[in-house]
Specification:
Strand content: 5-15%
Order of helices and strands: HHHHHHEEEH
Number of strands: 3
Radius of gyration: 29 Å
Number of helices: 7
Number of domains: 2
Shape: elongated
Strand order of the largest sheet: 1-2-3
Structural class: mainly alpha
Length: about 190
């Protein structure tokens, strides 16, 4: 009795992987977006054939399925890396006054003076992309408001200004509701 045929097992594996691939976000993006042409050339098919494969109307030959999945995953990986590099490059850069420990602590004291209900602290975190320390600004409210974070002191100040404005509006609405409690409005 002969053992299992390795070629048949590889073909079955390719079919299973293709079925899983069709459910992936990469395949969903390829169905709705572009980029099918280059991937079709990589696996020796036409763009129309690839589109029928991606819709699940036909199954690609096992070798083409493996080549297509590898190329599509490599493309998605490269796009994700480029996107991460772009986000890292466009991240806010702290001003020079925040680049030293003394400068950062002075900014934290200044923010605490502007917002006395908030405890402002700054901590460092090593960036994976650059290997340099990046500052994380954090403000904790003395009440029950959640913590607020920023990359720079200016960003944190802007966020705290918005939160304080919202808290002041809320206090005003509550005071107005208390003042008019029990009164009927005449229309």
């Amino acid at each position: 009795m002969a053992g299992p045929n390795l070629s048949d097992e590889l073909d079955l594996d390719a079919q299973i992987l293709w079925s899983l691939f069709l459910a992936s976000p990469i395949a969903a993006e390829l169905r709705t977006g572009g980029g099918r042409g280059l991937l079709a050339k990589a696996c020796g098919a036409t763009e129309g054939q690839v589109f029928t494969w991606l819709r699940g109307e036909a199954m690609p030959p096992p070798h083409q399925a493996r080549v297509f999945m590898a190329a599509a995953c490599d493309r998605a990986r490269a796009r994700a890396q480029a996107s991460a590099e772009y986000r890292a490059a466009s991240a806010p850069v702290p001003p020079a006054s925040e680049s030293t420990k003394a400068g950062a602590l002075a900014e934290a004291d200044r923010l605490h003076g502007l917002f006395p209900d908030w405890k402002v602290s700054v901590d460092g975190l090593e960036s994976i992309a650059t290997g340099r320390a990046r500052l994380i600004w954090r403000a904790e409210h003395s009440g029950d408001w959640p913590d607020v974070y920023g990359v720079t002191a200016a960003e944190l100040e802007g966020k705290l200004t918005g939160v304080e404005r919202a808290l002041a509006d809320d206090r005003k609405r509550q005071e107005d509701a208390r003042r008019t409690r029990g009164r009927r409005s005449v229309v």
